Amino acid sequence: LNIRPMVSYKRCIETEEGSRQCRRLRHNDDMIPGMLWGSDPTQGILSNDTSPSTRIMIKTPSRYIQREMDLFTYHNFGSRVYDLTIFEEEGDTEGTVHRVT
What we know:
- This protein is an alpha+beta fold.
- Helices cover about 25% and strands about 30% of the residues.
- The chain has a five-stranded mixed β-sheet with strand order 2-3-1-4-5.
- A hairpin with an 8-residue loop joins strand 4 (about 80-85) and strand 5 (about 95-100).
């Protein structure tokens, strides 16, 4: 399997939500804001579940995204599979791994 590692951090709902805060993340903090959602039957999360517990607001350092785009070009980047480790905050050593496409 050609599964690539990727790192992200959870966004704070109170201070990093909304278009203005996302713009600040991109321009001042060099982070790409995003949202991880989907199903995980092992956790009891189904894809038709729209509750907030099925969504994780994340921010990814732009250098990691750029590295992948440089390696695999823009068109192939979107079709790759990643083991995304999500840390609570920068500097943490333990995170939760999600397999994402």
